[in-house]
Amino acid sequence: MTDVQTATVLCAECKIALQPVTQQQTEDWFACPTCGTGDTRENVLLEAKDHATELVAHALQDAARNAAKRNKFITFRGQSIPKRSYRFITDVTL
Ligand SMILES: [Zn+2]
Q1: Which DSSP category does 45 fall into?
Q2: Which residue range is the domain that position 40 belongs to?
Q3: Are 30 and 9 in contact (CB under 8 A)?
């Protein structure tokens, strides 16, 4: 399984690691040092985890689709997984 906690969370736009922002007194706040896109640690991790989950889902679907292509007795009927846009992603590779 992919553990986002051990992966580096990156800004989806700039592809650089988010940095903790200490000026925010309320919560753990992480933001991109270049464009300033940020959120609480919890939200950042949630969104990065969603992105990682989608990566895995796409990889599995591609594998299923490719398997179906090679076998004329199997028809791939899966719905394409819609791509959403993410502010935060991880550096995990599958
Ligand atoms: Zn950025």
Answers
A1: H
A2: 4-79
A3: yes
Is residue 87 domain-resident?
Answer: no
In a domain, 93, yes or no: no
**Mean pLDDT for each 10-residue chunk of the chain (94 residues)?**
66 95 78 95 94 92 90 78 87 77
- How many angstroms is it from 27 CA to the middle of ligand 1? 20
- Residues lining ion ligand 1 (Cβ < 5 A) are 11, 13-14, 32, 34-35
d(CA 75, CA 39): 42
CA-to-CA dists, residue 74 to 40, 46, 58, 63, 71, angstroms: 45, 36, 19, 13, 6
- Stated pTM of the model: 0.74
Q: Could you give the number of structural domains in the chain?
A: 1
